[in-house]
Amino acid sequence: MIKKNTITSLLITGAISFTTLIISPDLNDSFNIPKLFGLFVFSILGVLILPKFSHLIRIHKQNITFWICLLFITLMLLRSIFTDHFFTGFFGRYGRNSGWLAYFCYFLFFILAATFTSLKLIRNSLMIISVLGLIITIYGFMQYNGIDFIAYAHSGYPIITTFGNSNFTSSFIGISAISTFYFFFIEKSILRKSLLLSIIVIDLLIIFLSKSSQGLFVAIIGVTSFILLKIFVYSRKKFLLLSPFIFGILITAFLGFIKVGPLKSLVYQPSVSYRGDYFRAAKDMFLDNPWFGVGIDRYGENFRTYRDLDAAFRLGPSTTTNWAHNQILQFFATGGVLIGIIYVVFIGVVTYTSISNIKKLESTKQNIAAAIFSVWIGYLAQSQISIDQISITLVGWIFAGFIVGIKIDNSESTGTTSILYNSKRVSSQRIWLVLLLALSFISLRSLWTADHDIKLARSGVIPNDFDNSYEFAVSIINRAPNLINYRLITADLLASNGEYEDSEKILLEAIKIDEKSYESLSYLARLYELADNTSGSVMIREKLLNLDRYDVENYIQLSKNYLFIGEQSKYQNLINQLTRIGVDVKYINQLRNLNQEN
C-alpha cells in the first residue's frame, strides 16, 4: 500500500509539473484553460488526502496562518458571489483565470503542504522545480533558434515556451535558478557543483534571450535572500558587516529595473513605466471603492474608467490591461480593504515564520529552510511586478505551506501524516471525489470543447453537424454562456459574413450579461456603423464616453456620426471635452479636421 507521504509528494510535484508543461494547441486559449483544468483536478485529488475538516482544525488550531488563509478565501468567495459579473469573480477572466476557484485550489495545496510537510517532500519539490526549469530552458533555446513542435501565433517575443508569455517564462526560470542554487550550495562534489553552476548560467542566459528581465530580478532577489539568511544565522556580526554590500547590490538591481544606475541596460524594460500606470489605476479603484473593491478579477473592466492621462497615451488609448501587475494592489482594488489587508497579513506572517523558525532549526535543516524562504521571496518579487500565472502562483502557495508546516524539531516530518483514516472515511471521501470529479469534468469538458470549437470558427471551419455559421456560433455560446469573449468572436465572424442581425443579437446579449464590457459596446457601435445605423452607433458611443474619457478613436467616430446627422454643437462639445482633459493637441486637431472634410 502506498504511503500517504508518497501520495502527497506525487500530488504536489505532479500538480507543479502538469500546470507548468501542459498546453493544448487545439484550443483558442492554448495555455490557461489546460493549466486551470490540471490545477482543479489535482486539487480535487488532494481532497482525498486531506483529513476531514475537524481534524484539520485540531492540527492547525495554533497555526495563525491557517486561520488567516481560511478567512481570506472565505471573504474572497463572498466578494466573488456579489461581484457584478459572478462568472468572472468565480472563474476568473478569460485568458487569466484568476478568480476565486483558482485561489481556492491554491488554498487546498497550501493546506496540503502545511499538513504533510517533510524534508523529503520539500527536497522533491525543489528538485522538480529545478528539473522543470531546465526543461523550459531547453525548450526556450529551441524556440529561440526557430525549432518548435507547435505553431504558435506570433507574440513578438522569441521565447514563450509552455507559458505563452516571455515574462512568465522568465520568472519561472528565475525561481528554478533559486532552487538550483540551493542544490549547488549543499553539493560537496566539485563535478556536480560545476554541473549545477552551468545549469544556473544557462538559465540566466535564456532569461536574457527572452527579452524579459523579470526572471533575472526574481533570481537575484531569491539567491540574495538565501545568502543573507545563511549569513544571519551563522553570524550576526558578519551579517552586519556584509549586509551593506549585499543590500547595495539589491538596490542597484532595483534602480536598474527603474532605469537608473549601471544595471539599467541589463534589467530595465519600458514595461516598468507601464506598471506605474497600472498601479495608479488600482489605487484609484480602491480609493473609490474602499470597502468591497470593484469586484474579484474585474480590474480589466474598470481600467479604462480609472486610468489617467499618462496611462491612456503612453501606449495609445486602445491599449489596456486586465491586471494591476501587483498582487497586493490587485486585491485591494478588486476585493476591498478587508481582503487586501488580510492578504498583506498573510504575506507578513509567512515571511516572519520562515525567518524566526530557521534560527531554531539544526544546521542540516537550515539550508532547506533557507531554500524554502528564498523561493517564497522569489515568488513574492514576481507577484508584485507581474500578473498571476497558475504554475508560478501554485509554487508560491505550496512553499508558503512548507514554511508554516515545517516542524522545529529533529523529526523528519511534522507528524500530521500519521493521522489514521478508517474505511468509512476513505469510502466517503471516494464517493465525494467521484461526484466532484464528475461535475468538474462536465463543466470543464464543456469549456474545453467550446474553446476548441471557437478556434475552428475563427479558422472558418464549420462542422458538418451545422447548416450555417450562426447555428455553430450559438452551439458554442450555449456551452459557455457567460464567457463574453466567445460572444465577441462569434459576433465578429457573423458580421464579417454580412449577418448583421445575428451579430447584433449576440452582442446585445453580451451587454446584458456584462454592462461594463467595453469590447462588447465597441463591437456593437462598429456593427451599427457597418449597417448604416448611425443613431444606434451614437447611442452606444455616448455610453462608451462614460466608461473611457480618453479613447480618441471613440471621439473620432462619434464626431463623424454627429456631423453626419447635423449635431454640430455636440461635435464641438467633444472637442472642448478633449481640450479640458489635456489631450495632446494633435488628437484635438484630428477632430477639428473632420469638420473641414465634411
How many β strands by DSSP? 0
Q: How much β-strand is present in the residues? A: under 5%
| C-alpha Rg (nearest Å) | 26 Å
Helix content: over 70%
Instruction: Give, in order, the helices and strands.
Output: HHHHHHHHHHHHHHHHHHHHHHHHHHHH
Mean pLDDT, as a whole number? 86
Could you list some keywords that capture this structure?
28 helices; Serine Threonine Protein Phosphatase 5, Tetratricopeptide repeat; 598 residues; mainly alpha; globular; 2 domains
Explain the overall architecture.
There is one protein chain. Helix 1 (4-21) packs antiparallel against helix 2, helix 8 packs antiparallel against helix 18 (363-383) and helix 21 runs antiparallel to helix 22. With 598 residues, the chain is mainly α. It folds into 2 domains: 4-426, no CATH class; 435-597, Tetratricopeptide repeat domain (Serine Threonine Protein Phosphatase 5, Tetratricopeptide repeat), CATH 1.25.40.10. It has helices at 4-21, 32-49, 53-59, 64-81, 86-91, 100-115, 119-144, 166-186, 190-209, 214-234, 236-257, 264-267, 271-288, 299-306, 309-314, 327-335, 337-358, 363-383, 390-405, 423-458, 469-479, 484-496, 500-513, 518-530, 534-547, 552-564, 568-580, 585-597. The termini are far apart. It contains 28 helices and no strands.
